[in-house]
Amino acid sequence: MIDIAKNIATTPRRTKASVIRELLKTTNVPGIISFAGGLPAPDHFPYDFVSDAVKRIMDKNGRVALQYGPTDGLPELKEEFIKFLKKYENIDAKPENLIITTASQQALDMVGRLFIDASDPVLVEKPSYMGALQVFRSYGAEFIGVKLEDDGISTVELEEKLQWLHDQDEHYKFLYLVPDFQNPSGVTLSEEKRRKVIELSEKYNVAVIEDSPYRQIRFEGTEPKMLYRLDKETHKTDNVISLFTFSKTFAPGLRLGIILGHPQIIKKMEILKQSLDLCTSSLNQLIAAEFLRTGYFEKHIEVVKKDYRIKKNAMVSALEKYMPEGVTWTNPEGGLFLWVRLPEQMSADDMFQDALKENVAYVIGSAFHSDGSGKNTMRLNFSFATPEKIDEGIKRLAATVKKRLVGAR
User: Fold this and answer.
1) Which pLDDT does position 26 carry in this prediction?
2) What whole-number distance in Å separates Cα of residue 92 and Cα of residue 322?
3) 263-276 and 103-115 helices, crossing angle to 10°
């Protein structure tokens, strides 16, 4: 056999295994209550709708559904998504502003391929979505972490770091944000800060990657405008590139995402995608187009939001009931996750195996920090388990925390 260590290329050598994917291998056993995966509740998958939609598609458009499609995506889905953007976000888009991807993870990979050369500075929230960190790191990004506050990224620290990079004549590439119900924290970027981000984007001529997988899952509070829309309404820099997915609002098994951006960016993305997978599944695109065209999305997302609100409240109530003093957590207005902070002297990394022995699992917070910090934090998912399982799981987790606290004193 060839010498793998000697022959493997630089990019895969830099690519590390996803902590979440590895954790799921250990937690997918009977008896464990897992808050680890970012999994939508399968009870809400629209099984009957998909079955009926496939039949309609095959009867009417079977040749298109089973054939290769254009690399940038089928016009049927683009047309429906353009209507969606106008209706829900008041964003005017044209087909040339969109490219359909094989889920948003491919979109992140295409962002990395397009922008990042080895050692390029990339600005990220601290903590940030580990799937993005994994991709960008594989292309050699040097991360500049910016602290996260209760209302999103610190724009004061962001400006300081942009100015420092500018003074060092560093060629920073982009700022990556999850502005709505951020993964992992559940925090939402305020509209005031969104306007400041757009202002800084213009001032320092830095691209902004707006990752929006959870935006439609708001069950409380007031919705701020998307960064893409704010840029169009105010500065018109065309610096914002927005990423969308059907994984959380429809079904992750479809593996469908969309990039919204300036036509010149989209054209470059199309060329990249040609070498990745030629095109995204035509059948799955037509199913998603039906999901939007028929109005099923509106009915479906209301059911999802109602359920997730109940589950989030169940998790917050359980945390209040069982967790010892000194443990804090976020209380998100939507999305799938909340963020727990243990006392500084504790390590969620070290506690993980103890939690597994209590038959409960979470994701260690350090995995979401580009510098490996945040060892006293953890991410909990509330969308997958039932309220009863959530209560029992938090009870088990709190028992583990209490035992560790005694040992840490």
Assistant:
1) 62
2) 48
3) 110
| Beta carbons within 8 Å of 204's beta carbon, 6+ residues apart | 162, 163, 166, 172
- 10-residue stretch averages of pLDDT, the chain, 409 residues long: 60 61 67 94 96 98 98 99 98 99 98 97 98 97 98 99 94 96 98 98 97 97 98 94 98 98 98 98 99 97 98 99 98 98 96 95 97 97 98 98 82
Are residues 269 and 361 both part of a single domain? no
CA dist., res. 216 & res. 167, Å (int): 39
298: amino acid identity, one letter: E
Asked if residues 82 and 98 have their Cβ atoms less than 8 Å apart, the reply is yes
- Where do we find the tokens 């022959």? 7
The neighbouring-strand residues paired with 259 are 99, 243
Question: 258 by DSSP, 3-state: which?
Answer: strand
The pTM of the full predicted model, rounded to 2 decimals, is: 0.94
Task: Select from 207, 219, 299 the least CA-distant residue to 262.
Answer: 207
Residue 340: CATH number of its domain: 3.90.1150.10
CATH code of the domain covering residue 187: 3.40.640.10
Domain that holds residue 163: 48-296
DSSP string, 37-77: S-PPPGGGS-HHHHHHHHHHHHHHHHHHHTS---TT--HHH
SS3 state of residue 240: strand
CA-CA distance, 35 to 362, in Å (whole number)? 5
Do the Cβ atoms of 107 and 81 come closer than 8 Å?
A: no
Q: What is the distance between the alpha carbons of residues 274 and 375, in angstroms, rounded to a whole number?
A: 40
- Check: CB of residue 362 under 8 Å from CB of residue 64: no
pLDDT of residue 228: 98
Q: Of 377, 376, 394, nearest to 385 (Cα)?
A: 394
